[in-house]
Write a structure and sequence with these properties.
Layout: H1 4-15, H2 23-34, H3 37-47, E1 51-55, H4 56-71, E2 77-82, H5 89-97, E3 101-104, H6 107-115, E4 121-123, H7 130-137, E5 143-147, H8 150-159, E6 163-168, H9 187-194, E7 199-205, H10 215-229, H11 233-238, E8 241-243, E9 254-257, H12 262-271, E10 280-283, H13 288-302, E11 310-313, H14 317-320, E12 324-334, E13 338-341, E14 361-362, E15 370-376, E16 385-391, E17 400-403, E18 423-427, E19 432-435
Parallel strand pairs: 1-18, 2-3, 2-11, 3-4, 4-5, 5-6, 6-7, 7-8, 8-11, 13-15
Antiparallel strand pairs: 1-12, 9-10, 12-13, 12-17, 14-17, 15-16, 18-19
Helix pairs in contact: 1-12, 4-13, 6-7, 7-8, 10-13
The structure holds pyridoxal-5'-phosphate.
Pyridoxal-5'-phosphate binds at residues 82, 84-85, 103, 124, 207, 209, 245-248, 314-318.
């Protein structure tokens, strides 16, 4: 039944204004891409297109920045890169070489981490199979299994070999998120049960997603602190680490097409106005140094009074974001406003740019001006969009387009759908080489 509350909600939504994406944020990204235009053009000359262009210096810079932000506020901190955000073997290998641990969530990811030389692994994720747990236990020298349930602990009992374990705590009552972890009040029971196994209980994990600012994360630390405070002293002593999970957004904020902003969706439905393709919106985000500081304050206030322990984190998006750029060639043009590229959204695995905004940059015709244009992929489906605008001084068949900073939740979701998955090239700061990675996950 339609009520006054519905009216109020609609009124509120119509008055909402998601901020415009600041022009300088887009320009920074465009200029950074322009500065590598020659490298991109030479790469296509040598290797063709479409391509995943792996930017190793950008990857290392992000990883260092993350480590430094958290090392500055915690005495004993270990980051584990969340492989689900980007499972390219070159990325995993580089991060492992640079001292990061790897967070895996399946036997397949575990095997990739081993193949890529990971020295420290945390194995998270629900419903691990006996085969997956056996693989992890057979590499107990470098692994901590983050149990997701009592069932997993029972499976470890049947395996009957020593391994370090932690347990994930459920953080939300949201129906779909309840699938993760054990309830906070079950922690004591879990530790008691672990005492009767070969597994060595040594820590607690939680994870929250999509954190543009630290508030939610800080609240979870506070809740966990209350739980830990109530544990018997002997259990408190067993906690050697708290793993605060991932979910750190990039400081540029969340970029979206105007249509995606909540109030615009409603406007569009009511007025049926198409949105302006040059109108982009954003949700601001906290920079990682301030984020780390807020978390450290929370940990010092709510956890360290009860236990002394190491801190782990599982960043994915923050580190992977700038590590891959998509290289595409304009293959066809239809009418003045439709360009079709050789690469398609099977490179990403989801219809990302029907909601999100990222600049499409023509490096064959460099300009800082953005123009409307439907830039579409070549899949035989209309749900194959790179963007509704491009930066450049024109657009013609044969031009090289770059969609920068597409390292997170794209490559790892790629699909063999209609088109095959493109090749990858690796830029090490000096030269570009092709890598063959089809044989590993
Ligand atoms: C358990 C766990 N850890 C870490 C991450 C990484 O999150 P993000 O890429 O947002 O940092 C995820 C993402 O879903 C996750 O499920």
């Amino acid at each position: 039944m339609y009520t006054y509350e519905h009216d109020e909600a609609v009124r509120k939504l119509l008055n909402k204004r998601t901020p415009a994406l600041p022009a300088e944020l887009v320009l920074n990204c465009v200029r950074k891409t322009h500065s590598k235009a020659d490298i991109f053009l030479q790469t296509r000359e040598k290797f063709g297109s479409p391509l995943y262009f792996l930017d190793i210096p950008a990857l290392i810079e992000r990883a260092e920045r993350f480590k430094n932000a958290f090392n500055a506020v915690f005495n004993d901190f270990t980051p584990y890169f969340a492989m689900k955000s980007c499972n390219h073997p070159e990325i995993i290998r580089t991060l492992a070489e640079n001292g990061l641990g790897i967070d895996v969530s399946s036997g397949a990811e575990f095997q990739t981490a081993l193949n890529c030389g990971a020295k420290k692994i945390v194995f998270s994720g629900p419903a691990k199979t006996i085969a997956e747990l056996e693989l992890a236990v057979s590499h107990a020298d470098r692994t901590i299994i983050l149990c997701d349930s009592f069932t997993e602990l029972k499976k470890l009992m049947t395996i009957g070999k020593p391994v370090s374990i932690g347990v994930r705590i459920t953080t939300e009552n949201n129906p779909l998120w309840r699938k993760f972890g054990i309830q906070p009040h079950e922690l004591e029971e879990f530790i008691n049960m672990a005492e009767n196994t070969c597994a060595r209980f040594c820590g607690v994990q939680f994870h929250s997603s999509w954190n543009l600012k630290p508030d939610n994360h800080v609240e979870l630390v506070q809740k966990l602190g209350k739980n830990i405070r109530n544990l018997p002293e002997k259990h408190k002593k067993q906690i050697d680490f708290i793993d605060i999970g991932g979910g750190y957004w990039v400081e540029e904020g969340e970029w979206m097409l105007a249509d995606t902003a909540e109030e615009m969706k409603l406007n569009k439905q009511l007025l049926n106005h198409p949105c302006d393709p040059l109108d982009h919106r954003y949700l601001p985000s906290t920079d990682i140094e301030a984020y780390a500081l807020a978390l450290a304050d929370a940990v010092k206030k709510h956890i360290f009074p009860h236990i002394t322990c190491r801190i782990f984190a599982e960043p994915g998006r923050f580190i992977a974001h700038g590590a891959i750029h998509m290289l595409l060639t304009v293959e066809d043009m239809k009418q003045p406003d439709i360009a079709i590229t050789d690469g398609a959204t099977n490179m990403l695995g989801w219809e990302r740019y029907e909601m999100d905004y990222f600049p499409v940059i023509n490096v064959s015709k460099v300009s800082e001006t953005e123009h409307p244009m439907m830039v579409l992929g070549s899949l035989c489906t209309p749900h194959d969009v790179w963007g509704f605008a491009y930066h450049g001084s024109g657009m013609s068949i044969g031009d090289l387009l770059v969609v920068p900073d597409q390292g997170a939740y794209t490559y790892s979701l790629r699909q063999n759908f209609i088109k095959t998955i493109p090749e990858s090239v690796v830029f090490d700061g000096k030269k570009v080489n092709m890598v063959n990675c089809t044989s590993i996950l």
